[in-house]
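pls ignore typos typing on phone
adenosine-5'-triphosphate + seq
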Amino acid sequence: MKNFYWFKQISNNGRSGRRLSLGEYKNAVSWSKYLVSSGAEIKGEGEVEWSADMSQLFIGNKFASGRHSRIYRGIYKQRDVAIKIISQPEEDEELASTLEKQFTSEVALLFRLSHPNIVTFVAACKKPPVFCIITEYLAGGSLRKYLHQQEPHSVPLELVLKLALDIARGMLYLHSQGVLHRDLKSENLLLTEDMCVKVADFGISCLESQCGSAKGFTGTYRWMAPEMIKEKHHTKKVDVYSFGIVLWELLTAMTPFDNMTPEQAAFAVCQKNARPPLPAGCPLAFSHLINRCWSSNPDKRPHFDEIVGILERYSEWLEQDPEFFSNYKPSSEQSMCCFLQCMASVKA
Ligand SMILES: Nc1ncnc2c1ncn2[C@@H]1O[C@H](COP(=O)(O)OP(=O)(O)OP(=O)(O)O)[C@@H](O)[C@H]1O
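k done
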């Protein structure tokens, strides 16, 4: 594979694997000294359960980065993985401590989650000032990257529906586990090769019972619910708001509020109740749902069980009637249900 060298990131005995390119070498040595174990260690609570066996980890090319992380491809126990490496800055103690807290919380949450639409956790390692989180590798990249490669408004409605349902099922599971994601956006939704979506990046997620206020929050304004922008008390419904924005992204393949800075977008959402414009030809089935999801009143936003139910019904109806999206009227839901029940009884 051109320009792709594996580096066996082990060596308690100092041996390393194959040669790295100069850039990779510089990157690797900057943190490898921390990741390589130096003998017996005392591990914190729960750490034994998720601690990576570093002798089984091969680290390859860096392929993405986050605000405070670099993401590498790798192999762990013969499995394709993504390795998120977070390094604490020496010069900023407050940020260093926030990053450590985020790492600990992300691992604790990911470790207990298991669902086809949630990225699968593999292992982690904690060697301050470097932490790593190993997850399954998703070859399709982020949904944001995929949407940016499409012409605006060009994603077929069947695909929009399928992707939306994947995301909603992942979120329904997450909420059923009492977890709020709090940073749901297309960048944190990853695709498999066969276009299945998985929810990722639990850095600022929390257990509903322990979320507290949104003070000093580092989520992303373009996708953030107004109550969270205002640093008010928030509930699971902040994820439903973000889901509404993601649904808009799926339909338009555009960036929300792309003519504004994130701060301007935050101001417009809170002070002027602004939302990204729904396309003129947006099927009512979607505009109706999006408007409910991004309602400024959290109580008016549906729960994910209702959203999954609605999207599943849309899928069924689309199967029965290829013109479903043009024919749909919100008031027709009832008659469509009757129609399907009749069809089912005729078949029986
Ligand atoms: N398991 C994975 N498989 C494939 N790509 C991944 C995986 N994990 C992360 N990525 C890529 O890396 C990017 C950043 O990952 P992630 O969001 O987890 O990092 P982060 O440090 O939390 O970022 P930020 O804080 O800026 O949101 C993702 O948008 C995606 O493109």
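The beta strands are 7-8, 57-65, 69-76, 79-87, 121-127, 130-136, 179-180, 189-191, 197-199, 206-207. Residues 1-20 have pLDDT under 50 and may be disordered. more later
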